[in-house]
Amino acid sequence: MQRRNLLKVLSAAAFSAPMLPLRSRSAAAASAPRAKITDIRIAKVKLVERLGMYTNTFHSPTGPSPVDVGNFSITEVYTDQGAIGIGPGSSPDVLSRAKAYLVGKDPFDVADHSRYLNALGRGGVQIETTLWDLCGKLANQPLYKLWGGGKSRVMPYGATFGLGDGPAERARTAAMSKAAGFKAIKMRSSFPTMREDVQMMTLVREAIGNDITLIVDANKAAPYGGTQLVTLWDYQRAYETAMEFEKLNVYWLEEPLGRFDYDDLAELQRACSTMRLAGGETNTQMEEFRTYVQRGCYDILNCDVVVLGPTLYRQIMDIAFAYNKRVVPHASGLMTTMCHMHLAAIHPQPIQGRLDKEGPHFELDHSPPIMDFKKQWTVFTNAPQLESDGFMTVPTDPGLGVTIRPELIDRS
Length: 412
What we know:
Elements: H1 3-16, H2 25-31, E1 37-55, E2 59-60, E3 64-79, E4 84-88, H3 92-102, H4 110-119, H5 122-139, H6 143-146, E5 153-154, E6 156-159, H7 166-179, E7 184-188, H8 194-208, E8 213-217, E9 228-229, H9 235-247, E10 250-254, H10 262-271, E11 276-279, H11 286-294, E12 300-301, H12 305-322, E13 326-327, H13 334-346, E14 362-365, H14 373-376, E15 392-393, E16 409-410
Parallel strand pairs: 6-7, 6-14, 7-8, 8-10, 10-11, 11-12, 12-13
Antiparallel strand pairs: 1-3, 1-16, 2-9, 3-4, 5-15
Helix pairs in contact: 4-5, 4-12, 5-12, 7-8, 8-9, 11-12, 12-13
């Protein structure tokens, strides 16, 4: 058959064949019923093991606090499609107000929901984190992919606690953190005297060597949760301490002065030639973070999703990037730390002129011999692992990407 005749036959067959409706996958998805929120509940993760007691010696009043595996609350958001979001625990009074607002609504309208939930304080932003986990599950995407992707692996730094056992014991704690696989470690610097602070950091550097990134937290941006600091620093104490820490190749000094001491923070930052200043873990307002970066107070913002919520956190992250600053989240519990992993994975890290490397990406509480994150994370069926190079792979399951062992959840 000649080519011209073949084309005529095929053309005629095409027009004579019955027309079948074509429906793209996107059209089918668009016409599918939207998920609706049906309930919000608080559940308890049972106590698995008490690892010991920890006494905070740089806040007042203070008292021994338990270090547990399990024994924390979670928030659950239910939908009419069966998907359940989980996140950090809220409080009963906030839960009742959030439920009255959210039930019947589309969980994907998080931009609207976050403004209401943020106004409810910490309990409200915990629910926002739970909503994001739910959205990830409904979209079948881990949060870092839902938020635009980025890194698939991020580096934690092991945040140690304690001061009461002295500089030598702090150095032994740092050595144990290095042995656990951390490539970056944070110490607390709030002894009564500068001599003790410098002695601790000198012993720590000797214990871990020069191949570990060393961070120090002065914890001077009080108050913290109704407590006051035992030791306060004025500018001179902060300056002299910072100059000694620079000699020890400290990567950053966290919260060396008061939360709103913008002038002295900026002056101290200018005085540092290699060491960065960091802070912001308890700040709740966008304007406060904008002031930090505009006035040159901090190289690194320690945002915390437990007080900001993921939406405001990401808005502040954009401000930081516009001013060539980093954001490294501050840890506040297991579920929040998981959210921080995803947020750290999407943050484009700027190259900051005088800074020679990117540094760690998120905080992970680990203070041996009592506080061991590997034991605490056994509540998950699929907990991320600290790999040989000090990185962790960001969870790839939908939402926050972790599942709590079903037998540990108490919904009674």
